[in-house]
Amino acid sequence: MQNAIDFMPFILTGALVTVQLALASVALAIVLGMLGATAKLSGSLALRSVAGVYTTVIRGIPDLVLMLLIFYGGQIAVNEIGHSLGLAYIEIDPFTAGTLTIGFIFGAYMTESFRGGILAVPRGEIEAGRAFGMSAVLVFRRITLPQMVRHALPSFGNNWLVLVKTTALVSVIGLQDMVFRAGQAGGSTRQPFTFYLVVALIYLLITAVSQVALSKAERRFNVGVRTE
Question: What would the CATH number be for the domain defined by 14-174?
Fold first, then answer.
């Protein structure tokens, strides 16, 4: 127990990296999810096809494999392009690679969450907004988006909780998150169980705080909505 206390600042520094990684990844996933949902609901066959391939491929390949492919393959691709342009060697750091990978993966899941949320908005309300002379952007901002968020929040919450756990995979590419640091602390003290137990408890704490925040958000967006 004393070792766990002594190494706690070391582990908590890694926990901060984990939270930063999760927030950066979910921000990217939201952007990709909105783009993917818009593409899937568009009238363009090409956009629907690209979005369909994206969600199918991402959901069919294990997260760890994708992370290794992007970390190593992405670095090769970037440097091949850089070499052709006469640029110096470009190194992709683990944090950037982890953010891109996790954001890219969960962008596919967010695509389906947002698409379902948009489809749940009554078509009549959208048509009524247009009948009142609202532009497409105004209809989306005042009618579609608020209701889409309300319908998509439960699925979004599940995706966020899974995303937080997925950040643990980034330790395999060298990011000094709390899992990586727990491995170092456990190796130096020969008490890996103690430190991985601490990491598990920190993840549970993050999950508990997230669930409270998500519950408050759901209540906020359900104000004035009758529930059966």
Answer: 1.10.3720.10
Strands (E), 100-208: none
Alpha-carbon gap, residue 55 to 65, rounded angstroms: 16
What would the two tokens of residue 124 be?
């009549």
Joined tokens for residue 114: 């947002």
Averaged pLDDT, groups of 10, the chain, 228 residues long: 81 93 96 94 91 90 85 81 80 86 92 91 84 82 84 92 93 88 88 91 95 91 64
Written as one letter, the residue type at 43 is G
Report field, pTM of the whole predicted structure over 0.85? yes
Distance CA 16, CA 12 (A): 6
State the DSSP H helix or E strand holding residue 213, giving kind and residue range, or none if neither. Answer: helix 192-221
Q: Are residues 28 and 104 in contact, defined by beta-carbon separation less than 8 angstroms?
A: yes
130 is written with which tokens? 């247009």
